[in-house]
Fold this protein.
Amino acid sequence: MKKKKIVITGGPGTGKTSIIKVLEENGYHCLHEISRQITLQAQKEGIDQLFLAQPLLFSQKLLEGRIQQHAEADNFDSEVVFIDRGVPDVVAYMDYFGNEYPPLFREACEQYSYDAVFLLPPWKEIYVSDNERYESFEQAVSIHDHLEDNYKKSGYNPIEVPTGSVEERFSFIIDHLS
């Protein structure tokens, strides 16, 4: 059975985690965002903010992790697997920060494909900065634009999920799977 690999993406503070939680509560298999795991591992190794200290290394680790998740999705005994951020997110964030990267990053965006991409737009009413989300709302909008552009460059037509309750957004995504 061919798995449908579905990406849920968007800038910071757009409600991705809440939607992933509801998808799981409704029996869908989901793979979670991995950037915090990479940051925590680097902190254990004495690097407080790897993405600031060594942005290319951080992005390489993200790319490797997202490629691993792409393969891991095939191991689930279900038709659909949702993934919190995909391979093209890595390039979009590097572009946002103005970081240079080798061609293999863009090549990975082409090599590891997804069946659909749901893009959550910036939503000022729910946006909150905290210790782990340090971007301003304006920066979150710019990140959204980079994500949308990069997914389009990678051959996708991202489906924008309208704002609304988590349940409404969940229903929108499920309704647009077929």
Summary: The chain has one domain: 4-173. The first strand starts at residue 4 and ends at 10. The mean pLDDT is 91. Residues 55-72 form the longest helix (18 residues).
